[in-house]
Amino acid sequence: MKDQKEKNKKIKVIPMEFSEYIFLCRKGTPIKNSTYDTALFKICDKVGMKRFSMHVLRHTFATRCIEAGMKPKTLQILLGHSNIGITMNLYVHTTEEEKQKEIELVAEALKVI
Question: What is the pTM of this model?
Fold first, then answer.
């Protein structure tokens, strides 16, 4: 991030609305998502794994945040969603491991002593 900030100092004109951004192209505007996807695809191809997009990483981040105990409202704000339903219904996914963990919690709670 520090290297990128240094790189940005060489950009001749940065529009005010993007002055706080870290990842800017030569024109001083935010780098397009497709640029990140292209770079990620090249990495996937190089190591021989199935391609995935930056958007998939965003979904994974959301899921891991909830699994780690982050409050849904906090995640909503971090992701920039106006509606909590978008955050929880479209971005957060339940893994098989999480389902099993929850079932075990219920089973433990229902045990009769």
Answer: 0.69
Q: Are 8 and 24 in contact (CB under 8 A)?
A: yes
Look up residue 45 and give its two tokens. Answer: 């191809």
Which residues fall within 8 angstroms of residue 39, CB to CB, at 6 or more apart? none
Q: Which residue has the tokens 């998939």?
A: 56
Give the SS3 label for residue 24: strand
Token pair, residue 8, equals 């940005």
CB atoms within 10 A of CB 66: 19
- Other Cβ atoms closer than 10 A to 10: 7
**For residue 100, how many C-alpha atoms fall within 13 Å in the half-sphere facing its CB?**
3
- pLDDT tens digits, one per residue of 53-74: 999 999 999 999 998 999 999 9
